[in-house]
Structure formats: C-alpha cells, structure tokens
Write a structure and sequence with these properties.
With 178 residues, the chain is mainly α. The chain has a domain of 117 residues. The protein contains seven helices and no strands. Helix 1 crosses helix 4 and helix 3 crosses helix 4. The protein is flat and about 55 Å long. The two termini are 28 Å apart. The mean pLDDT is 88.
C-alpha cells in the first residue's frame, strides 16, 4: 500500500471516472485498462497483486464491482478504495438511470433495438480481453492453461453454472496442481 499525494489520488479517481463510462458489460470489462494503469504506468501494484485482488473480490459474495474497491484499497488504503469506487460508480450510475428511463420510453424503436443488439459483441470482446489479462500470470504453467481451456469449453458447451468451474479451479489450486 502506498501513501499517495492528493494529485495522485485525484488522478486515480479520474482514471476510474473515465473507465466508468467504458465499462459496458460491467466494471470487470475494463480490468485490462485498470491493469495497464495501476501496474504498467503507475507501478502501484504488481501483476500478481492485481490478479489476486480481482480473484479475492470475485470470490466474495456481493456485487461484481467489489474488485474495484479491493484494487483501490491495495493502492492507497481506505481513501484509495473511496477514490476508485466513487470514480467507477458515479458517472455510470447517473448515465444508467437516465438511459434506462429514456430507453424504456422508446424500447420498440428501431434505433434502441439496434443499439441493444450491437452491444452484445462489444461486451463479449471486452470480457475476452479481461480473461486474457487475468490468465497472464498463469501463462507459463501448463496445468493452469489447461484449466482455463477446460473452463472455456465447459462454459461454451453446457449450461452448467460458472460456480462449478470456479470451484474446480479452487480445488486444483489448493492441491497445487495449477
């Protein structure tokens, strides 16, 4: 954990403020950009710390966006968590409220239907980029990569809950196989 200056905290808040408007499909879709900023540009976290932060938050019950608070906490403690969470939540929440009301009133129009249909491939692409970044630390380990491949196959071919592959990954990791 770092002691950030006021300008660094403002920069952290601003980065997550911008990412909020890009997080189509949820905050997790901007994880690659968060990684680039926190690990690559600022060097506030290592790749392993970033991945562990996301994994811990995703394993905890509650909203998917909790990983943003964990990242902020690991960068600058409680004030870092406040900066990242308020940055990621404020703009997207305000826009979502407005857009939902506007879209509901016009849901049968051609433009709104085209927009919602077009957002699906964008969301899938952002999720694939996130998976790529999160699998990075395990890239040199054959067992981990086989586990990732098996999970992708299970998710594509079955209607099995994603919790089962996650539980399987936790078991494999606990046994030291990946």
């Amino acid at each position: 954990m770092n002691a950030l200056t006021a300008s660094e905290l403002l920069s952290l808040f601003g980065q997550f403020l911008v990412l909020s408007m890009l997080s189509i499909g949820g905050a997790i879709t901007t994880a690659p950009e968060m990684n680039r900023y926190l690990v690559g540009d600022q060097h506030w976290l290592t790749d392993a710390q970033f991945t562990a932060s996301v994994a811990i938050a995703q394993a905890a019950p509650g909203p998917n966006v909790l990983f943003v608070a964990v990242l902020g906490w690991n960068v600058a403690g409680p004030i870092g968590a406040l900066a990242t969470m308020s940055g990621i939540l404020l703009p997207s929440t305000a826009l979502s409220l407005w857009a939902t009301r506007w879209g509901q009133a016009r849901r049968e129009t051609r433009g709104v239907r085209a927009f919602t249909t077009g957002m699906a491939p964008l969301t899938i692409g952002l999720l694939l980029a996130t998976g790529w970044v999160l699998a990075g630390p395990a890239a040199g380990h054959v067992g981990a990569m086989l586990l990732v491949a098996a999970t992708v196959l299970v998710m594509l071919r079955t209607r099995l809950s994603p919790m089962w592959p996650v539980a399987g990954g936790a078991l494999v990791g606990a046994l030291g196989w990946a």
